[in-house]
Amino acid sequence: MLVAVYGTLKKGYGNHSVISAHKLVGSDYLRISALEDCGFPCVKFNKDSNIKLFVELYEVNTEEGMNRLDSLEWVPTLYHRLYTKTVWGKDVCVYEYTDKLNGIDYNCLEQEWENDYKRVKEITGY
């Protein structure tokens, strides 16, 4: 199963060890309708939105791997699995926050973009 991750599960962040044993197969974007910093990124996805969030894509082919992710994300209390398509049409599973959100916290979104830009720059030298 292709799993899209954002926030603390991405490479270089605090919870990456939960998914690091699985193969990173690329990156893409998902369309979002809400994003807030609740001490961790809380996201609502919407395929019709113009606002995009960068995600890393991992191949997770074991029930144990998915169960570890479910445990970290407190499924079904805090998050649930959402099956959707990326901007480039890949079928993915992503963890969506279950509670209500008020909209886009642009400071949080800008921080996500800034961190991704820095990481890409470190990797590529550009």
How does this model look, in words?
The protein has a single domain, classed as Hypothetical upf0131 protein ytfp, CATH 3.10.490.10. It is 23% helix and 37% strand. It has helices at residues 63-72, 106-124, and strands spanning 2-5, 23-37, 41-45, 51-59, 79-85, 91-97. It is globular.
Key attributes of the depicted protein:
single chain; 126 residues; alpha+beta; Hypothetical upf0131 protein ytfp; six-stranded mixed sheet
Please sum up the structure shown:
The protein has helices at residues 63-72, 106-124, and strands spanning 2-5, 23-37, 41-45, 51-59, 79-85, 91-97. It is α+β, with helices and mostly antiparallel strands. It has a single domain, classed as Hypothetical upf0131 protein ytfp, CATH 3.10.490.
The level of helicity is: 10-25%
User: Main beta sheet, described?
Assistant: 6 strands, mixed
Q: Give the overall shape, derived from the CA principal axes.
A: globular
Euclidean distance between termini CA atoms: 32 Å
Please name the fourth-level CATH homologous superfamily.
Gamma-glutamyl cyclotransferase-like
Uncertain stretches of 5 or more adjacent residues: none
Specify Rg, calculated over alpha carbons: 14 Å
Oligomer: single chain
SS strand fraction: 35-45%
Q: Please give the CATH architecture.
A: Roll
- What is the count of β-strands? 6
- Average predicted confidence as pLDDT: 86
| Number of H/I helices | 2
In total, how many domains does the architecture comprise? Answer: 1
CATH fold description: Hypothetical upf0131 protein ytfp
Adjacency order of strands in the biggest sheet: 3-2-4-1-6-5
Order of helices and strands: EEEEHEEH
CATH C-level name? Alpha Beta
